[in-house]
């Protein structure tokens, strides 16, 4: 059953823990999609478990725009990025619950990662519309939702909302304990 409850900030420390790598391999997950020089959008990054891997992959010529509604997630993400000497490649922004405030990004994003965030949103229709507007034509977004929080029927509803915004499933990657789809902007 899906909820709109936002992940508490303190859980961000567990989600960004290196121990999580024992169960999830962000490098292997992102390798097929992210290359040097890309502009990547990550809504709901938490404290940056995937953000740092994205930043490593886009390299010094690329950029990661990480957008979260919780100031503590953003400040911890920035601290981690600074420690990893990658802060200059990461544009960490504070969003509003109903808007990621992506003005100026229209049609410039090569790839978006929405990992374990969509079930927390109050309005997924406007979320997918913002993603579609930010992506370049033909670019993709990887959507993954935790199977423990989101059942298969609800995930299909999320895919329908994405399609209404012009984001269509191009493949269904296998991600452990998750429902996942690679969505392509047509
Ligand atoms: C379960 S955490 C997942 C964090 C990260 N993606 C990961 O897998 O480690 C969900 C994150 O989405 C953020 N979030 C919730 N609603 C949001 C919204 N409307 N816009 C942007 N971020 C949001 C939360 O603050 C939290 O950091």
Q: Give the strand tally.
A: 7
Structural class based on helices, strands and sheet pairing: alpha/beta
Helix fraction by DSSP (H/I, runs of at least 4): 25-40%
Radius of gyration: 15 Å
CATH fold name, please?
Rossmann fold
Domain tally: 1
| CATH homologous superfamily descriptor | Vaccinia Virus protein VP39
The biggest beta sheet is recorded as:
7 strands, mixed
CATH architecture: 3-Layer(aba) Sandwich
| Structural shape | globular
Mean pLDDT: 96
Query: Could you tell me which ligands this complex binds, including any ions or cofactors?
Result: S-adenosylmethionine
Terminus-to-terminus distance: 30 Å
Share of β-strand residues = 25-35%
* Cross-sheet strand order for the largest sheet: 3-2-1-4-5-7-6
Query: H/E order of the elements?
Result: HHEHEHEEHEHEE
Tell me the name of the CATH class: Alpha Beta
Low-confidence stretches: none
Number of helices: 6
Any overview of this molecule?
- This protein is α/β, with parallel strands linked by helices.
- The chain contains six helices and seven strands; from the N terminus they run ααβαβαββαβαββ.
- It has a single domain, classed as Vaccinia Virus protein VP39 (Rossmann fold, 3-Layer(aba) Sandwich).
- It has helices at 11-15, 26-30, 51-58, 71-83, 124-134, 152-164; strands spanning 39-43, 63-68, 90-94, 109-115, 135-146, 167-171, 178-185.
- It has a seven-stranded mixed β-sheet with strand order 3-2-1-4-5-7-6, sandwiched between helices.
- β4, α5 and β5 form a beta-alpha-beta unit.
- α5 (124-134) packs across α6.
- The structure holds S-adenosylmethionine.
- S-adenosylmethionine binds at residues 6-7, 12, 15, 43-46, 49, 67-70, 73, 95, 97, 100, 115-117, 120-121.
- The site of S-adenosylmethionine has 22 residues, from α1 and β2.
């Amino acid at each position: 059953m899906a909820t709109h409850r936002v992940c508490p900030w303190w859980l961000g420390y567990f989600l960004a823990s290196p121990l999580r790598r024992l169960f999830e391999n962000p490098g292997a997950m992102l390798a097929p999609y992210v290359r040097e020089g890309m502009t990547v959008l990550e809504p709901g990054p938490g404290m940056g478990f995937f953000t740092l891997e994205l930043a490593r992959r886009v390299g010094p010529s690329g950029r990661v725009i990480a957008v979260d509604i919780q100031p503590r997630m953003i400040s911890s993400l920035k601290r981690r990025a600074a420690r990893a000497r990658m802060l200059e490649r990461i544009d960490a922004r504070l969003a509003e619950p109903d808007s990621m405030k992506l003005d100026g990004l229209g049609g410039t994003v090569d790839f978006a990662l929405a990992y374990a965030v969509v079930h927390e949103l109050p309005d997924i229709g406007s979320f997918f519309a913002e993603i579609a507007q930010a992506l370049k034509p033909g670019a993709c977004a990887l959507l993954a939702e935790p199977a423990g929080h989101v059942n298969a029927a609800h995930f299909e509803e999320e895919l329908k909302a994405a399609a209404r915004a012009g984001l269509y499933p191009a493949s269904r990657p296998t991600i452990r304990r998750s429902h996942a789809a690679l969505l392509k902007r047509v």
